[in-house]
Amino acid sequence: MKYLPLVIRNLGRNKIRSLLTGFAIAISIALVCILRTMPAGLDNIIARASGTTRISTHNEAGIVYSLPYAYLAKVRAVPGVSAAISWNWFGGAVDVTKGVEFANFAVDPDQLAQVYPDWNLPQSAFDDFAKYRNAALVNQATLDQQKWKVGDEVTLTSTVFPVSLTFKIVGAIPQQGNTTFYFQREYLAQALQDAGVNFDTTGMIWSRVDDPGRVGAVMAQIDELFHNSDAVTTSETESSFVGNFFSSIKQIVAIIQIVAGVVTLCIVFIAANTASMSIRERVGEIAILKAMGFRKQTIFATLLAEAGLLALVAGAAGALVAWGGLELLHSKFNAAQPGGMGALTSFVVSGTILVQAIFVSFFIGILSGWIPALGASRRSVAQTLREVF
Amino acid sequence: MIDLVNVSRLYHRGADEIHALERVSLHVERQRFVALMGPSGSGKSTLLNVLAGLDRPDSGDVTVANQRLNDLSEDELAAFRAHTVGFVFQFFNLIPVLSAVENVELPLLLTNLSRAERRQRAETALRVVGLADRGSHRPRELSGGEQQRVAIARSIVTDAELIVADEPTGDLDAKNAEEILSLLQTLRRDFGKTVVIVTHDPRAEKWVDEVIHLDKGVLLETRPGGAARAGVAG
Q1: Which of B97, B107, B115 comes nearest A13 by C-beta?
Q2: Which residues of A touch B95 (CB under 8 A)?
């Protein structure tokens, strides 16, 4: 510790250089911290968006291909399925010129409450949804986004079907993070019938399995049921479904993480170059210290401490900036528009990430200072004195 | 204090061999002020480095303050220098980011003294060299002569027996050079130090007890300096 003042003074020797190196390390560590939130953030989104005993059944060819609506009755008859509903993407827009601003689906109201007990809606809201043909259940985030409230009448124009439908909002789904809108399939079916459009398909079927231990068996049984039909199905758990939906994003995140690693490596080289320059300028002074009796281990340790301390302080600052920045972003957006951050609230610089960042920073410092410090500490005093003075 | 017997030092520069020291034998008593003189390349700095434990001879024995330096490891040599030798260099070589008193305190970091004790000793050393009121100044705020005084304070702060100085007046004007030589003489006379300097400065002769002449790595002659002749040796 008695060498710490010397280490700190040496860091202040060339303030601009130390600051610039510190900024480079801080910015890279802040970026790495933010990127490190992505895997956990995506998992969090998937976890929030999924239930463990809810399964999705869709066309094996992909979710854009439909299934016969008749499949719903067959799925409901499968032993172990306690409830099931159909889902149809409506693609409704408040203003078609703005496009679809939130997900909206036509669903079967009769078993909606059993399939989505985690919506935490009062039974009266489900009852109203089933009772009124034009009823809509809307996620709170959607209400906030559109500045709607329960009781409002709203009109959506479909970008998929040739109809516009007017709905009455009967309930707000308090679950945060998703902008969604649900209405009765029957309402859509009648409107399409009036428009002369045949409507006997569904995009997918969502089922609730009564026993978490039988989810796999039930999924296999459903898919087996339609194995030899024209529309072969694939069933998966909700978490798996959402996970697959995000899988391409996860691959991109993996690439970004690799890039972040390369950036960190580049920062090591930049910091090493700075350390090398700083030490090279002081070979004479270092020789004088050795002449005074400073051992090479002490010289090595103090030079390494300089690089380590700079990187540690800069890295800690970068990590705190990343943490504070995301927290500020969350609070600002939520204050301006509650729930408006949606899924982005899942991205949090956790304590683990902060600790990892601080360790990585220190590692950058040590790695960058190692070779220059070793070279300087091993240099012969007499030779240096001859060369420098 | 210093005993060198048949010391040789050879440097390789490319394919060339340079005999920096050739079978030099030398004896310096305690509390003497000795000047090593000679033309450039005569081996005087090499000789200073060898007797101060900064460089090792290729052959011959070096004994300083009753320690045979040939037998010491790198770490032991470092410890020897820390306890026994104080260094003064031509260009002062103070750490620019430290104040004068912090520069003087530097060698004491190698001791077990407390921070307060280190500071007290550093201030005492500055007082000895006449810079008690300049302790808080950075080197760039001091004149060349003052910087060299700080360097001398740094060399005596550990109470080293041997002070070695390589061209201590080389970067100073005549007045400051005289003052530095006088100060070194005072260290010998009043503080009982053994002082060995390398110098080209003919003015040094009148201040030292002994002048040792070298040329091409060979010790040519040892003769009394002005101080010995004037009976300054105390």
Answers
A1: B97
A2: 6, 9, 285
Residues of B in contact with A296 (CB under 8 A): 74, 78
Which chain A residues are Cβ-neighbours of B91 within 8 angstroms?
Answer: 389
d(C-alpha A86, C-alpha A238), whole Å? 15
Q: Domain with B58 in it: what CATH number?
A: 3.40.50.300
Query: Is residue A177's pLDDT more than 70?
Result: no
Chain A contact for B87 (CB, 8 A cutoff): yes
Tell me whether residue B226 is in a domain. yes
How many residues are recorded in chain B?
Answer: 234
- This prediction has a pTM of 0.66
B43 shares contact with chain A (CB less than 8 Å) = no
Considering the domain boundaries, does residue B211 fall inside one? yes
Q: Which of B46, B54, B75 sits opposite A291 (nearest CB)?
A: B54
Q: Establish if B90 touches chain A: CB-CB under 8 angstroms.
A: yes
Contact A293 B166 (CB under 8 A): no
| pLDDT more than 70, % of chain A | 90
ipTM of the assembly?
Answer: 0.87
The nearest CA of chain A is from the CA of B27 a distance in Å of 22
Domain ranges, residue B49: 2-94+161-230
> Residue B69 domain-assigned?
yes
CB contact under 8 A, B52 and A291: yes
Which pLDDT does position B233 carry in this prediction? Answer: 45
Residue with tokens 């910015």: A27
Q: What pLDDT, on a 0 to 100 scale, did the predictor assign at position A344?
A: 64
Instruction: Give the pLDDT band of residue B234 (cuts 50, 70, 90).
Output: very low
Q: What is the structure's pLDDT at B231?
A: 61
Rank A259-268, A325-334, B55-64, B85-94 by mean pLDDT and report only the highest.
B55-64
Total of domains in chain B = 1
